[in-house]
C-alpha cells in the first residue's frame, strides 16, 4: 500500500503547469519555509520554530492575514473559469442555428446579386438582418439564464463552504478553510476534516481515516512522537494530511503546507469548475430534445419537399423563402433551451429552499427529494428540541424531582409529593449528580447578558452539570482533577473518566455515566445510604423497572457509577498496559481495564421536549405517502413514547432495538422488519446503514439524517443524505446531499414539498413549451399541405406562397419561449403536491397523459390559426373578410399577420392552460404575477411588431383593423376553452379511477 503511494507517477509536473504563475509562486514561498526539513523526523518544537509560531497561542490574526496574502488561499487549484465571451459564443453552438445562418447567408447573397442586377424588391436585406438580430437576442437570453443558474449554484456552494477550527491569538476560532495558512495550529476533533498538512504536537486517542490519500481503509492511529527516519505517507503517524478525516479523538497540529503545497495537492486531478452531474431528468430532457429535433427536422424536410412538389419552385426567391421557412421552423420548434431553463428553475427552487433552511448541495437532488418515500430521522435534536433538563433522579433509596427549567442553575430538590428531601435519598442524589457532572465533557458558561447561559458541548451532559449546580453537588467534585478519559460513542453508549483526588493522597477514581441498562451490566456493587454493598438481582430489577417507568414518561435516562482505583498511579492499575516509557498506554483503548466492578449510585431522567412543529410535519409527510422512521440510540420506551407523541406510531406501538435487529436471521427477515417498523432504539450507527440499505432494496427512496462521524456511511448511502447544520460534523456534511441549517425535521418535509413543487413547475413549462412548439409545427405543416384548400395558394398563380414567414416563426419562438416558460418555472403551487404518493424516480417526466395534452393543444392551435388565416383570404373554406384588399399578395400579408398574431395569442392562452393537467386554469388564475407580466410584455411586443412601420417591413406584417383583433383573440381563446373541456373529462376519468 505504501509502495503504491511512493510509486505514483509524478503527476506534479502537469499540475504545476496548469497553475497560474501566482499560484506557483505561492507554492514556492511555502516550500522555502521548511527548506529541506522533514517535519515528521524533526521535533515538533523545531517545526514550530521554523514556522515561527507558538503552538500554545497560535498565530496572531494580523500575522495570519499577512501569511494568507503571501502563501495564498488554502484551496486546490481549479481550472480557470471560461471567459464570458466564450460562454456567449457557445450559445450559437447548435447545428440548426448553423443551418439557419447558412440559409440566411444564401438569402443575403441572392439579395446582393439582385441588387447588383438592379431589380431587388427590398431596399435592405430585411430577412437576413432580422434573423441575425433575433439569433443574437436569443443568445443573450440564453447567456443570462445560464449566468443566473451558475450564480445560484455558486451561492449554494458558498453556503456549504467548509470551516476549520484553529488556534489564533490564544483562542480556538472557527475560520473558513480557505483562510488556513502555514503556521496555523489546527484544533482537531472527532468528525473534523483535516484541512491542511500539519505536524502533530498533541493528540489524545487520535485516529484518522486516510483512505482518500493512501487507499488504506482502516483509520490510522496518530501520535506526536518524532519519527526516527523518513517514512511512506501511510506511516507518517505524527503528520496529518489535507482531505483526511478524524474518526476518533482529539489533536493539535502545526500547519506545514496549505492548498497545492499539500500531499493531496500533488496527486489530485485538476478540479474542474463545472462538474458533470447530469441527472435522470436532464438526461430525459436531452433525450426528448433529440427525438423532437429529429421529428421536427423530418417535418421541415417534408414541408420543403411539399412546397417544391405542390407549388413548384419558379424563382430563386421561391427556393430561398422555402428554405428559410423550413430551417426557421426547425430552429423555432426544437426545444433546444430545455436544459437551460431546467437548470434555472432548479437553481431558483434551490435558492428558495435555502431560505427555508434546507441547503441542497447539488441541483439534481431536488428531483430525488420530490420522490422520497421514507425519511429516517434521528430523534435527539431533530424531532426533539435538544433542550435537556434533568427532572428526576432515582437512587436506591428513593426518587426525587428537580424544579426549574432551561439551563439556568436555579431550582430545588423536592420529593415527588412536594415534600423536602432528606437523607439517605439526599446524599445518594448528590453522589449521583456529582458522578454525572465529573464524567462529563460539557460546560455551562454564563452568557454575555446577565441571566443567560451558554451550553458548550452536548446538551445531555450540560443538563447534568446544571442539575449538579442546582443541588450544589458540584462542590463535591471540585477536588477532583481529570487525568484520563474514555470518550462517549454511540456504540458504547457510555463514557468514563479517571480523576485524581487532589486533597487526598492523590488516589484515582473512575467516574462513569451512560445508558443505565448498559452501565448497570458493568456494576457489581451499589451505594446505599453511604455504604457500598454488592448489588443483588433485586437491585437490578428495581433499577431496570425504574428505567422503564421513566422512559415510558418520555424521559431520557442516564445512569451514574464510580470505582475507586486505590492507587495514585495509572500504571499501578491491574491489567493496565504500559508503553515503552513505563506509563499507561492509550487509556481510551483500555476500556475493559477501567470499566468494570463499578459502584452504581443512581440515575437521572432528562426531559427533551419534542419540537412542536414536527407533529404536523409528520402528518403532512404521511399524507404525501412518505413514512417517517425514528432511529435513535435512546431507550426503546423513551423512543416509542416520543414517537407516539409525534404521531410516528400509534399509541402503544413498539420500538425495535439494535439487538433485535442483529438477531434477525437473514436479509428477508430484516426487510420484513424494516417494511413495518417505524421506531428503532438503542441502535448503533452501523444499524442505520443496514436499515437504509434494506429500505432501498424494497424500492424506497430514503432520506437519512446524521450528525456524528459514524453516521457518514449511512448518510452517504441514502438517496438523500441529510446532515445537521448545527450539530453535524464536517465529515457528515461532506457525505450529505442536503444540510439542515436548523437541524429541524420539519425542514426535511418542507424541502420535499418544495422539491415536488419544483418538479410540478418543470412539468408545467414542459407542457407549455412542447404544446406551443407542436402547435407551430402543425400550423406550418397544415398551411403548406392544405394551401390550396385554405386559399393560401390561389389557382392560376405561380410560385410558392409560404403560410408564415421565417422571421415571424423566429419571433414567436423568441416571444413565447423565454419569458412565459421561465415564469411558469416559478409558478406558485397550484395543486396540493403533498396530497399524492411520491413519484417514482423511474417515471418519465413527460408521460403519456402529458403527450396527450401536448398533441391535443398543438392540433387545436394549428386549426384556429389556419381558420383565422383562411378568413382573410379569397377562396378556401371561409369567406374572405378583407374584401377591400386588392390582389392575393396584399391579402396574404394580412392573412399572415392574422395567423402570426393568433399563434402568439394562442400560446399565451396555452400558458394559462398548461399550469395544470387536471385543474381548471381559472383556479388561482392571477396567482402568478410573473406569468401575467410575461403575457403583458408579449402582447405589447406583438403590437409593436404589427404597428411600427419599419418593423412591418421587416416582419412582413400590416396593421390590423379592430374587428380582426377581436377575431384573433376569440380564435386564440379557443385553445383555453378546448383545454378546459378536456380537463373536465379528464377529471371525471380521474375520479372514476380513484373510486375504482
Ligand atoms: P440519540 O442521539 O439518538 O439520542 P445517543 O447515541 O446520543 O442517542 O444516546 C444513546 C444513549 O446513550 C442515551 O439514551 C443515553 O442513555 C446515553 N448517552 C447519551 N449521551 C451520553 C453521554 N454524553 N454520556 C453518557 N451517556 C450518554
Ligand atoms: Mg446523541
Automatic annotation (TrEMBL):
Reaction catalysed by this enzyme: ATP + H2O = ADP + phosphate + H(+)
Q: Does the keyword Oxidoreductase apply?
A: no
Q: Name one GO biological process term.
A: sodium ion export across plasma membrane
Keyword Transmembrane helix in the entry? The reply is yes
Q: Which InterPro entries match?
A: ATPase_P-typ_cation-transptr_C (IPR006068), ATPase_P-typ_cation-transptr_N (IPR004014), ATPase_P-typ_cyto_dom_N (IPR023299), ATPase_P-typ_P_site (IPR018303), ATPase_P-typ_TM_dom_sf (IPR023298), ATPase_P-typ_transduc_dom_A_sf (IPR008250), ATPase_P-type_domA (IPR059000), Cation_transp_ATPase_P-type (IPR050510)
Listed SMART domains: Cation_ATPase_N (SM00831)
> A Gene Ontology CC term for this entry?
plasma membrane
Q: Where is the composition biased (Low complexity)?
A: 17-30
User: Spans of biased composition, class Basic and acidic residues?
Assistant: 1-16
The alphabetical list of record keywords is: ATP-binding, Cell membrane, Hydrolase, Magnesium, Membrane, Nucleotide-binding, Phosphoprotein, Translocase, Transmembrane, Transmembrane helix
Q: How does it sit in the membrane?
A: Multi-pass membrane protein
| The family this protein is said to belong to | Belongs to the cation transport ATPase (P-type) (TC 3.A.3) family. Type IIA subfamily.
**PANTHER family for this protein:** CATION TRANSPORTING ATPASE (PTHR43294:SF21), SODIUM/POTASSIUM-TRANSPORTING ATPASE SUBUNIT ALPHA (PTHR43294)
Per UniProt, what is one Pfam family of this protein?
Cation_ATPase_N
**Where are the residues of the annotated region Disordered?**
1-30
According to UniProt, the name of this protein is Haloacid dehalogenase
| Sequence ranges assigned to domain Cation-transporting P-type ATPase N-terminal in this UniProt record | 38-112
Q: Where, per UniProt, does this protein localize?
A: Cell membrane
Q: Where does the sequence pass through the membrane? A: 96-113, 125-144, 291-310, 322-348, 765-790, 810-829, 850-869, 898-918, 930-950, 962-985
The record's EC number reads: 3.6.3.8
What GO terms are given for molecular function? ATP binding; ATP hydrolysis activity; P-type sodium:potassium-exchanging transporter activity
**Gene3D superfamilies to which the protein is assigned, alphabetical:** Calcium-transporting ATPase, cytoplasmic domain N (3.40.1110.10), Calcium-transporting ATPase, cytoplasmic transduction domain A (2.70.150.10), Calcium-transporting ATPase, transmembrane domain (1.20.1110.10), HAD superfamily/HAD-like (3.40.50.1000)
**Taxonomic lineage of the native organism:** Bacteria, Bacillati, Actinomycetota, Actinomycetes, Bifidobacteriales
Amino acid at each position: 500500500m505504501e509502495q503504491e503511494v511512493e510509486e505514483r507517477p509524478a503527476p506534479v509536473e502537469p499540475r504545476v503547469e496548469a497553475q497560474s504563475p501566482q499560484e506557483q509562486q505561492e507554492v514556492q514561498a511555502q516550500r522555502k519555509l521548511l527548506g529541506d526539513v522533514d517535519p515528521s523526523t524533526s521535533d515538533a518544537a523545531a517545526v514550530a520554530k521554523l514556522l515561527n509560531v507558538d503552538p500554545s497561542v497560535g498565530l496572531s490574526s494580523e500575522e495570519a492575514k499577512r501569511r494568507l496574502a503571501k502563501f495564498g488561499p488554502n484551496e486546490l487549484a481549479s481550472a480557470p473559469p471560461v471567459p464570458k465571451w466564450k460562454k456567449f459564443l457557445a450559445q450559437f453552438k447548435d447545428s440548426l442555428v448553423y443551418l439557419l445562418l447558412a440559409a440566411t447567408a444564401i438569402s443575403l447573397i441572392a439579395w446582393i446579386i439582385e441588387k447588383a442586377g438592379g431589380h431587388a424588391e427590398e431596399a435592405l436585406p430585411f430577412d437576413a438582418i432580422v434573423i441575425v438580430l433575433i439569433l443574437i437576442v436569443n443568445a443573450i437570453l440564453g447567456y443570462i439564464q445560464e449566468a443566473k443558474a451558475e450564480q445560484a449554484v455558486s451561492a449554494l456552494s458558498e453556503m456549504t463552504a467548509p470551516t476549520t477550527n484553529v488556534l489564533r491569538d490564544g483562542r480556538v476560532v472557527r475560520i473558513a478553510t480557505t483562510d488556513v495558512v502555514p503556521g496555523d495550529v489546527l484544533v482537531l476533533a472527532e468528525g473534523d476534516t483535516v484541512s491542511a498538512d500539519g505536524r502533530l504536537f498533541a493528540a489524545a486517542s487520535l485516529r484518522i481515516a486516510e483512505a482518500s490519500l493512501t487507499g488504506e481503509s482502516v483509520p490510522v492511529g496518530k501520535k506526536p512522537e518524532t519519527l526516527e527516519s523518513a517514512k511512506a505517507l501511510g506511516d507518517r503517524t505524527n503528520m496529518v494530511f489535507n482531505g483526511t478525516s478524524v474518526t476518533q479523538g482529539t489533536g493539535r497540529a502545526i500547519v506545514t503546507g496549505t492548498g497545492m503545497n499539500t500531499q493531496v495537492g500533488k496527486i489530485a486531478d485538476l478540479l474542474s469548475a463545472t462538474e458533470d452531474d447530469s441527472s435522470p431528468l436532464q438526461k430525459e430532457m436531452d433525450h426528448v430534445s433529440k427525438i423532437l429535433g429529429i421529428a421536427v427536422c423530418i417535418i421541415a424536410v417534408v414541408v420543403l419537399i411539399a412546397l417544391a412538389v405542390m407549388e413548384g419552385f419558379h424563382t430563386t426567391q421561391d427556393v430561398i423563402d422555402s428554405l428559410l421557412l423550413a430551417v426557421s421552423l426547425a430552429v423555432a420548434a426544437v426545444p433546444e433551451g430545455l436544459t437551460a431553463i431546467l437548470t434555472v428553475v432548479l437553481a431558483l427552487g434551490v435558492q428558495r429552499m435555502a431560505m427555508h433552511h434546507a441547503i441542497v448541495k447539488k441541483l439534481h437532488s431536488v428531483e430525488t427529494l420530490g420522490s422520497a418515500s421514507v425519511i429516517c430521522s434521528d430523534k435527539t435534536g431533530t424531532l426533539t428540541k435538544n433542550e435537556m433538563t434533568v427532572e428526576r433522579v432515582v437512587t436506591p433509596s428513593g426518587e426525587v424531582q428537580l424544579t426549574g427549567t432551561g439551563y439556568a442553575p436555579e431550582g430545588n430538590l423536592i420529593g415527588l409529593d412536594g415534600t423536602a428531601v432528606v437523607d439517605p435519598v439526599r446524599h445518594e442524589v448528590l453522589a449521583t449528580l456529582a458522578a454525572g457532572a465529573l464524567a462529563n465533557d460539557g460546560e455551562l458558561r454564563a452568557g454575555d447578558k446577565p441571566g443567560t447561559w451558554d451550553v458548550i458541548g452536548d446538551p445531555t451532559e450540560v443538563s447534568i452539570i446544571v442539575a449538579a449546580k442546582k443541588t450544589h453537588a458540584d462542590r463535591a467534585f471540585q477536588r477532583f482533577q481529570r487525568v484520563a478519559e474514555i470518550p462517549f460513542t454511540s456504540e458504547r453508549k457510555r463514557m468514563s473518566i479517571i480523576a485524581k483526588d487532589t486533597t487526598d493522597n492523590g488516589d484515582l477514581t473512575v467516574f462513569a455515566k451512560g445508558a443505565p441498562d448498559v452501565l448497570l451490566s458493568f456494576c457489581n456493587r451499589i451505594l446505599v445510604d453511604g455504604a457500598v454493598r454488592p448489588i443483588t438481582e433485586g437491585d437490578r430489577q428495581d433499577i431496570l423497572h425504574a428505567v422503564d417507568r421513566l422512559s415510558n414518561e418520555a424521559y431520557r435516562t442516564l445512569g451514574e457509577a464510580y470505582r475507586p482505583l486505590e492507587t495514585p498511579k495509572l500504571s499501578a492499575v491491574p491489567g493496565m498496559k504500559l508503553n515503552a516509557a513505563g506509563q499507561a498506554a492509550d487509556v481510551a483503548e483500555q476500556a475493559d481495564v477501567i470499566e468494570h466492578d463499578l459502584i452504581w449510585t443512581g440515575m437521572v431522567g432528562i426531559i427533551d421536549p419534542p419540537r412542536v412543529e414536527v407533529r404536523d410535519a409528520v402528518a403532512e409527510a404521511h399524507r404525501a405517502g412518505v413514512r417517517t422512521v425514528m432511529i435513535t440510540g435512546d431507550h426503546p420506551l423513551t423512543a416509542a413514547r416520543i414517537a407516539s407523541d409525534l404521531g410516528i406510531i400509534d399509541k402503544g406501538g413498539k420500538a425495535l432495538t439494535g439487538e433485535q435487529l442483529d438477531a434477525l436471521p437473514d436479509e428477508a427477515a430484516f426487510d420484513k422488519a424494516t417494511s413495518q417498523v417505524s421506531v428503532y432504539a438503542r441502535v448503533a450507527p452501523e444499524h442505520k446503514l443496514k436499515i437504509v440499505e434494506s429500505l432501498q432494496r424494497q424500492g424506497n427512496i430514503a432520506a437519512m439524517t446524521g450528525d456524528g462521524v459514524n453516521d457518514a456511511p449511512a448518510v452517504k448511502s441514502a438517496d438523500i443524505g441529510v446532515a445537521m447544520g448545527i450539530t453535524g460534523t464536517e465529515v457528515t456534511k461532506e457525505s450529505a446531499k442536503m444540510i439542515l441549517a436548523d437541524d429541524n425535521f420539519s425542514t426535511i418535509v418542507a424541502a420535499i414539498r418544495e422539491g415536488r413543487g419544483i418538479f410540478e413547475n418543470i412539468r408545467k413549462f414542459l407542457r407549455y413549451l412542447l404544446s406551443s412548439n407542436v402547435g407551430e409545427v402543425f400550423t406550418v405543416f397544415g398551411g403548406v399541405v392544405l394551401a390550396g384548400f385554405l386559399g393560401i395558394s390561389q389557382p392560376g398563380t405561380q410560385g410558392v406562397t409560404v403560410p408564415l414567414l421565417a422571421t415571424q416563426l423566429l419571433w414567436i419562438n423568441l416571444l413565447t419561449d423565454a419569458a412565459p416558460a421561465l415564469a411558469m418555472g416559478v409558478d406558485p403551487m397550484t395543486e396540493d403536491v403533498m396530497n399524492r404518493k411520491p413519484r417514482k424516480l423511474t417515471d418519465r417526466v413527460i408521460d403519456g397523459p402529458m403527450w396527450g395534452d401536448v398533441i391535443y393543444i398543438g392540433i387545436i392551435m394549428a386549426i384556429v390559426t389556419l381558420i383565422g388565416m383562411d378568413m382573410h383570404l379569397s377562396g378556401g373554406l371561409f369567406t374572405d373578410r378583407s374584401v377591400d384588399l386588392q390582389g392575393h399578395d396584399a391579402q396574404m400579408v394580412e392573412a399572415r399577420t392574422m395567423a402570426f398574431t393568433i399563434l402568439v395569442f394562442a400560446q399565451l392562452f396555452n400558458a394559462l392552460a398548461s399550469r395544470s393537467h387536471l385543474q381548471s386554469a381559472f383556479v388561482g388564475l392571477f396567482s402568478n404575477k410573473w406569468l401575467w407580466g410575461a403575457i403583458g410584455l408579449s402582447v405589447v411586443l406583438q403590437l409593436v411588431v404589427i404597428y411600427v412601420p419599419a418593423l412591418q417591413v421587416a416582419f412582413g406584417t400590416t396593421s390590423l383593423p379592430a374587428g380582426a383583433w377581436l377575431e384573433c383573440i376569440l380564435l386564440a381563446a379557443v385553445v383555453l376553452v378546448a383545454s378546459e373541456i378536456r380537463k373536465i373529462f379528464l377529471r371525471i376519468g380521474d375520479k372514476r379511477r380513484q373510486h375504482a
